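Lab manual, section 2.4: Encoding a predicted structure.

Procedure: take the sequence of the chain (93 residues), apply the prediction step described in section 2.3, and record the output as structure tokens. A sample record is shown.
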Amino acid sequence: MNDNEERPVTVITGRVWKKKGGKPEGVHVMLVAPDDDSAVRRALESLAAEGYAEAELDQIGDMEGEPDDEPHLSAYQGALEGEVSIVTFEEPI
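Recorded output:
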């Protein structure tokens, strides 16, 4: 990829906990980063800044176009603007 090419939005999936040993929430983190290591580091820093005590990240990959539905569409747009966007949801039991 050239330096002048736009980087894709990276999505990281996993689980987060507000309190250690508490109830887990599912998480999708969207951001633009130069490589996977930088993406994971920025994601973990942002989750900590939002008050999450623990995070377990499962998968990382590049998005192939923008999502159709909210809240992921807004998160995707935020990532394109340089934000680290965090979407949480209830984990199925």
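Check your result against the sample. Strands lie at 10-17, 25-31, 54-62, 85-90.
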